Amino acid sequence: MKRTCDNWQDKLPAGKFGSHLYEEFELRAKNVSTEVFRVKRADEAGKIILDIVKETGAKSVALVSCSLIEASGIVNELKDNGVAVYTEQGDIAENIGTADIGISGVEFGIAECGSVCQDALAIESRLVSSLPPLHIAFMESRNIVPGIEDAIDIISGFFTEGYISWITGPSRTADIERVLTIGVHGPGRFVIIAVDEGTDGGAA
Predict the structure, then answer these.
(1) What is the mean pLDDT of residues 17-37?
(2) Quick one: average pLDDT of 29-36?
(3) Three-state SS for 195?
(4) Are 50 and 77 in contact (CB under 8 A)?
(5) Which of 30, 39, 70, 149 shows a CA-CA span of 20 to 30 A to 21?
């Protein structure tokens, strides 16, 4: 899949990110209706996702892989439980309109607002995070910066072209008679799985 940046870990400013910001990030994320789960290792995410599949009755998942998702082994677990998993570009394009869940990775979180940053240069990344009614995002729990200004500084330090998405909770709008409605323009449910142990062996 195409990427705006090949190594986001190198773009995070030394001394200005880390798991010490996780509690604030989690609080802010939950305040905007994001569901947040923290696990030590990626392979512990399987039970969380399978519980969500069982709870929702999901039959199909569109998935854009990343190193954390690969380490989780969730693709095989889903298939073993009878869930159709679409990972190839053509399969995602053909089935995204009916997929029950979208799964992707995100690059880092922002403690100030509970948002996450996603490298969404690949159209498939945009599709799985915006069209299914439920989006599950994997993130390293150490990859959290303090504020929006810090996030903008990271992007502006290298960005010349590409596509970056900022995701803050499930889709919501209140533009019709100021009545808040969830899930109109995107997923009505957003889940973050924060993983302590990075795939490079580093830990939060």
Answers:
(1) 97
(2) 96
(3) strand
(4) yes
(5) 70
Between β-strands 164-167 and 115-119, what pairing exists: parallel, antiparallel or unpaired?
A: antiparallel
Distances (CA, A) of 45 to 26, 50, 52, 99, 132: 17, 9, 11, 20, 20
Q: DSSP assignment, residue 70?
A: H
DSSP letter for 13, please: P
Beta bridge partners of 193: 37, 138
Structurally, at CATH architecture level, domain 16-195 sits in 3-Layer(aba) Sandwich (3.40)
Identify the three-state secondary structure at position 90: helix
Q: What is the pLDDT of residue 1?
A: 79
Enumerate residues 6+ apart whose C-beta is below 8 A from 149: none
> Is pTM, for the whole model, over 0.85?
yes
Burial of 163-202, coded b for 16+ CB within 10 Å and e otherwise, reads bbbebbbbbbeeeeeeeeeeeeebbbbbbbbbbbbbeeee
The residues spanned by each domain of the chain are 16-195
pLDDT tens column, 44-92:
999 999 999 999 999 999 999 999 999 999 999 999 999 999 999 999 9
Q: Which residue has the tokens 């959290």?
A: 144
Residue 186 to residue 53: CA distance in whole angstroms: 19
